[in-house]
């Protein structure tokens, strides 16, 4: 997509600090990191949300898993731990309409989400 920022990064039109890549995935450092290690794993083919993946995306899904493992090794968080996060759609606050996985690490990350207040 011509107006997608991640497609422009994949195409090389916008510079990025690339950590790892294969034929399906590009992994690069987030420009507004939320942890000492914050890398985005982006499919090179445009797809908007995780729920759009089906059998034709099998190679991409395997590459995302491989990317997470390889990036965690490169960033030195494989042994200490890391978090993978995919925001899927509006309620999850997906900010870029191109599927991407965040890899966070480099410190204790705390709880994933806040506990909902009890009704009553």
Detail the topology: elements first, then pairings.
Layout (H helix, E strand, L loop, with lengths): L4 H7 L6 E4 L3 E5 L7 E7 L14 H17 L7 E4 L15 E5 L15
Antiparallel strand pairs: 1-2, 2-3, 3-5, 4-5
Describe the structure.
This protein has 120 residues and is an alpha+beta fold. The chain has one domain (5-105): HIT family, subunit A. 20% of the residues lie in helices and 21% in strands. It contains two helices and five strands, in the order H-E-E-E-H-E-E. The chain has a five-stranded antiparallel β-sheet, with helices on one face. Strand 2 and strand 3 form a beta hairpin. The longest helix is centred in the middle third of the chain and has 17 residues, at 58-74. The chain is globular. The termini are far apart.
């Amino acid at each position: 997509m011509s107006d997608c920022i991640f497609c422009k990064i994949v195409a090389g039109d916008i510079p990025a600090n690339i950590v790892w890549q294969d034929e399906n995935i590009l992994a690069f450092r987030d420009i507004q990191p939320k942890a000492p290690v914050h890398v985005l794993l982006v499919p090179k083919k445009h797809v908007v949300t995780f729920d759009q993946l089906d059998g034709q995306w099998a190679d991409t899904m395997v590459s995302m898993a491989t990317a997470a493992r390889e990036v965690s090794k490169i960033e030195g968080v494989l042994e200490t731990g890391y978090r993978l996060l995919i925001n899927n759609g509006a309620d999850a606050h997906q900010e870029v309409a191109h599927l991407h996985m965040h890899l966070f690490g480099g410190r204790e990350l705390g709880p994933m989400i806040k506990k909902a207040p009890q009704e009553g």
